[in-house]
Model the fold of this input.
Amino acid sequence: VHYIEQMSTNAATIIPGPGIGIVRAPTTEDKLKILSDDARFDLACACGSSAADRRTKAADHSWVYPVTLPNGGTTRFFKTLLSNVCVNDCAYCPLRANQDPRRVVLQTEEVVHTFMNYVRTKKVFGLFLSSGVVGSPDSTMERINSIARILRIREKFYGYMHLKIIPGASSAAIQEAVMLADSVSINMETTENHFGLLSQKKQYQQDIIRPIKEIAGYLQERNQMMPYAQVPYLKRKAVQTTQFVVGAAGEKDQELIRYMGGLYSKIGMSRIYFSAYQRGFGSAHLPGEQALGANTQDNQKRSLREHRLYQTDFLLRQYGFSAHEIPIDGEGFLSLQEDPKKAWANAHPEYFPLSIAKATKQQLLRVPGLGPTWVSKIIKARQQGPVRNLEQLGKVNARLRQASEYLG
Ligand code: SF4
Done:
């Protein structure tokens, strides 16, 4: 018996050919199994505090993702593609048009019904919606936006919602998504110089950079309305995120870090995510396919590169570093041997030791091993009396002992 996933209807289909043909159309659950699996490579939502937990799945439902909140608590998101049909040619993506995965499409009411059932039974508290490009960017955006519209207006779902912006979408479609969602993202994937290796169909400036700039403008308008908003979700600040697929197109860390600096300082990007390229899914011409071996050592290197980029991201967002200060080796890459904050400190012996009694908050944040929590602790303790060492403030672990070496 053949089994077929139908793309756009739930009617049963008879399949001509040898043997018996026919069968049932895929159920919503069948489709979700396929689509949520394909959605796992997209990390560009506020899911999780580490790469590991962003990739984790719940044991019972593969489309329900555990999420770690910034305050340390956890919640669960419903995360899926609407469709894995795609007209695009992204060379790193297993769903690109010339590949042959099982293609399915979720209908609008299927998503609304399934999601709201999970919400009512408190199995999920937020939604992450993405899609392959079915037809045109705008016809796909309309599918995404119509689900968001129904959830917000008809179902009165006011919880967290992340919507993917489809590359090449019109300004009107982007504006509507920004008004409906808590966060939106369009994936940059790589820098402009390398983008031609990833796609011949998508135009970097028109399809990626233009939407990112438009989103920034619409977010500003929306967030200015917050004090006057009548519905809860519009009272929350909405944000934009993006993702780079690291290593597919052969870009250097130096190029990515320059982009990160611009995205945070000029565009007001909220978060940048990195996904180490997974060898074996892409076109053979990609540098990522050629350069990386399948052995464990190379896999570890790939994950470590992603980890170093996340550490750099923290330095830019939370520690007051500028992109041009991040230490880069002669080849244009971050060190895999030492974290970027320690590499900076070791390259700047003139900066240390810092006086724990007198150094400013910004100076203390540059001490390897000291994070924002401990820096606040030091500043607060100084208001009560003299601070001479870290031991005075609490239990000192190996990381803090390392910090002590940079303090006087
Ligand atoms: S647009 Fe590109 S990355 Fe997205 S599903 Fe289509 S081929 Fe894959």
